[in-house]
Each structure stands twice: as structure tokens, then as C-alpha cells.
Amino acid sequence: MLSAGLLRTMRLIALVFALGLFLAPLPAESQPAGKIYRIGVLETRSAALNAANLDAFRQGLRELGYRDGQNVEIAYRSSDGRNERFPALASELVSLKVDLILTRGTPAALAARNATQTIPVVMASSGDPVGAGLVASLGRPGGNVTGLSKLPSIFATKEYVDVGGLLSYGASDPHLYQRAATYVDRILKGAKPATFRSSSPRSSSWPSAARPPGRSASRFRRRSCCVRST
Question: Which of 214, 209, 210, 211 has its CA nearest to residue 225?
Fold first, then answer.
């Protein structure tokens, strides 16, 4: 038979152990069970015209364990090519209490940053975030904005070539969106935008060139590959 004193001691130890398990902090990068994250997307083009980028973003999220409609949902807002609409659209996303805003391009990122200083903003791409005042530096952005900045380019994306431009050298937009999902994941798990670096993309579209009538594509591209951006 155990003595009464020993029984009391054992009960006290069990109680302290149970309280320790209850009060132990959750891991900094854990996802609350059952939570559905709402991601606001602020874009220039409609969702239909931006389907390739959205698909790449969703693919990136799926690879990280997020399923649209299950533990994440997307609130998409497009300016339809009118930059003056961005401030109102950004304010609308803030009023929806989104957990994060994904943007592409400097005007959208500026509108999101001006609409909120607390909701994280992830740039799928931005030409010069430091020069635009979006981040203090690429190494330590500060504030609530982080993400990806584009490579120097003659034309930033091949859409300009499709309508008659000579040459594009820049990041692949779907690749940028897929990489942006990693920033979204880290932020949703508790990381602060101010503390992790913005970066340049690893994948680029080079070359994408308009071909003059009567000239073969291969010959023209060989000549174009030596054009250097300044």
C-alpha cells in the first residue's frame, strides 16, 4: 500500500504534467486546425485573362498543403487595366478581412500597402520595390510588404511581344505566382513580412522575339539572343 503522502505527491506531479501540456505554446509555423485562410488577389487583368498565373499559384498552394475551398479561399479583384481603381479595390479586400493580399505590379502593391499596414502584402512581381518605396531593402523589407522583384528587361513579359514588340527578357509570370505561394505559406504560418527577404526570380523567359515577315524563327532568335538589356 502506498502512503497517503506518496499518493498526494504522485497526484501533484500528474497535475503539473497535465498543465504543462495544456499551456505549452504551439509551434510558430503551425496551421490552426479547421481554419480557412482568405487570400485577396489584386490584379490588373480579369481572372479569366489571368488564368495561367492563377493556376500556377493554386498549384504552388496545393504543393504546400492548401486546397481551394477547403482550407483556403481566394477573393479576386481586378482593375481591368485601370490603375486608378486599385485604391478602392484594395480597401474592399481589407474590409473583407483577408489574411493576406497578393499583388502584381507596383501600382497594385502600392495601393495594398496604402490600404493597410497590418495585413501582409506579397508581391508576385514588382519592377523596383525599393525605388518605389514598397520595401526598405530586398534583404530586410520592413513593414508589411515582401515578395518577388522582376529581372531587368527590354519588355517585362512576352505579352508585349505578342502585340508587336521586338524582344522580351524577363521572369515567367506563372513561375512567379507559383513561387509567391511559398511566401504566402510562410506568412500564414506566422512569419512576418518585415523579416524575410524579397528576391528576384530564378526562372526567366529568354528569348521571346517577334519575327519579321520572311525570316525564319531560328535564325532571328539566334541573332536576338545577343541583345543585352541596359
Answer: 209
